[in-house]
Write a structure and sequence with these properties.
Blueprint lengths: L2 E10 L4 H18 L2 E7 L2 E8 L1 H12 L4 E12 L10 E4 L7 H5 L2 H4 L2 H15 L1
Parallel strand pairs: 2-5
Antiparallel strand pairs: 1-3, 1-4, 2-3
């Protein structure tokens, strides 16, 4: 089966643990149903998420996110075929933002807009290696 990957960033609207738990519950339910896996890195100023699986399912998941008012200004950083999943055992891995990611100041100064596809992938490749 051909695999497809989307990495996007958005700004949380009204971020708190309860909202995050709701997002994760929705994502895990839909992703298990649709054979989508991935990871969500989150903090008060940023959601950075990788989705992977069949192209139509991944595009459908991203379309739901774009329409979700808990995400402000979603920006697609990567949309491309891939050879393998980075998170094959995770319907949606939840991970707090790491110190090696962009700082809040860097995000405010436009780090997401300047991110290359390779830089976005590298964040998740590092996270996947930690999970192994």
């Amino acid at each position: 089966m051909a695999l497809f990957q989307v990495i996007y960033a958005s700004t949380p609207f009204g971020f708190d643990r309860g909202m995050l738990n709701g997002i994760l519950a929705d994502a895990r339910r839909c992703n298990e149903r649709d054979d989508v896996t991935g990871a969500l890195i989150c903090r008060a100023d940023l959601y950075l998420q990788l989705l992977e699986g069949p192209e139509s399912a991944v595009r459908g998941a991203f379309a739901r996110i774009v329409g979700d008012d808990r995400h402000l200004e979603p920006v697609c950083l990567v949309a491309a075929p891939v050879e393998r999943r980075l998170f094959p055992g995770w319907a949606m891995r939840d991970d707090p933002a790491r110190s090696w990611m962009w700082t809040q100041e860097e995000v405010a100064a436009g780090a997401v807009a300047r991110a290359t596809p390779d830089a976005a992938r590298a964040i998740f490749e590092r996270l996947a290696a930690e999970a192994a």
